Amino acid sequence: MDIRKGTAVLVTGAALLWAWGCSPESAYRAGTETETAKEHAAAKETDEESSPANETDAAGEAPLSCISINKILELADKEDLSRKDLEGYQYQDIGSGLMILDYDVNKDFSLMAGQTGFDEEPMYIRLVSAEDKDYIDIREKSRKEVEDFLENHSSRTEAVGIEGHVKEIHNDRILLQSHADDFPGVFWVLGISEAAAGGELKEGQPILVLMEDMESRAEDGIEKYLARWISALSEEGMAQEDILLNSPPVLNLSDPRSSTMSSFEVYPGNFNWNTANGEGIVACGPGPWDETVLKSAAKLKLPSYNGMDKILYSYFMSRWPDKLTIRQWDKAEAGNEDAQEDWVADLYCRMPFLELEKGKAYEFLAEWEKGSTEKNRCWGNARYLFVTE
User: Fold this and answer.
1) Which residues contact 318 (CB under 8 A, 6 or more apart)?
2) Is 325 helix (H, G, I), strand (E, B) or coil?
3) What's the average model confidence in pLDDT over 244-249?
4) 197: buried, middle or exposed (CB in 10 Å: 19+, 13-18, 0-12)?
């Protein structure tokens, strides 16, 4: 499977695959107001039966439980897909006469089920592209055809990783207070039930979170993000070695499933490095898409585990940067300076794992801020490049 343009890649050992998330439109879509299941039942003059996904909480808010891409792929494998398989996910009835339940997926897709009544089986269940409204009926197509549709209609994923704490919890979303100086503010983070690794979240709890920008705001004006991974942060945090580095640190990657736990080392290419005692060193070279650079880049041969398309790797530097930007490209795009990344993640804290795919090129751009010299005992930037096979 290669859903390359819409795949988020940072994961934890307790959650090997990212949950896919909700579409930007949580309150309105095409001018149609969201209905809770109880409102919908009243409008259709049915009984009190309601969908768990659209029941309201004590504050009268509809839970924002979104159907994930992984779940859609599971449904595509089913031979007897029915309306019960869609229970537990938020929808909007956007139909007129015919009931059309529009389920949130992410900013690129929605899932639409057309049926004549709330208790009736759907006549179709379509995965719909938000950009061009192209669609595919997941009941009539194979899983591979659904995967191809996802790949062809996905946009670039942009994510951010920060430390913060939970201010409020509302069903399947939290109000997050950022602790990152370079990414301050409060944000609504949706889809926490599938992204949280290691237990239930609590108000006031410090956490690490990787989240995708949904490019929209809630009714209160606060920006909305989709959770990709969430983990509790220990009071001790993540310690690093207290050493003076005269050159940028080596990037070490290791496969936690391997019995040897051998480390794959990636040395920096271009860098500008300065130490606290005033010494500096600079290395310049061509950009990451120069064909000669890719040919000489470190090559990581990924193992094969039961047909898994993505392999979990831990990664480490002896001096962790203040900001780490990770980019992924298709290796076949070598030499194409206009090639767009499959995804980009800006990390303002240390995330423990990375999910790698075969046939990709990865760039790690690490930045140590000059204002943090007292803490880091260094400042500058370094670029690391490797390809996977």
Assistant:
1) 240, 241, 243, 245, 249, 250
2) strand
3) 87
4) middle
Query: What is the residue-averaged pLDDT of the chain?
Result: 78
User: Which phi and psi (to 5°) does residue 370 adopt?
Assistant: -65, -30
Q: What is the pLDDT of residues 276-286, one digit of tens each?
A: 888 888 888 76
Q: Calculate what percentage of the chain has a pLDDT beyond 70.
A: 78
3-state SS assignment for residue 114: strand
Tokens of 70: 């992984």
Report which of 185, 160, 224 is spatially closest to residue 23, judged by C-alpha positions: 224
Radius of gyration of the chain (CA): 23
Domains of the chain: 20-25+37-153 (no CATH), 157-232 (2.40.50.140), 251-388 (no CATH)
Provide the 8-state DSSP code for 372. G
Q: How far apart are the first and last CA of the chain?
A: 15
Q: What is the pLDDT of residues 55-94, one digit of tens each?
A: 444 344 444 467 878 788 889 988 888 888 988 887 889 8
Give the residue ranges of DSSP H helices in the chain: 37-43, 69-77, 143-153, 192-195, 291-296, 373-376
- Distance between CA 146 and CA 135 in Å, rounded? 10
Length of the chain: 389
Is residue 198 very low, low, confident or very high in pLDDT (cuts 50, 70, 90)? low
Whether the Cβ atoms of residue 232 and residue 207 lie closer than 8 Å to each other: yes
Q: Does the model's pTM come out above 0.85?
A: no
User: Measured between alpha carbons, how far is residue 265 from residues 39, 187, 233, 299 in Å?
Assistant: 58, 36, 27, 10
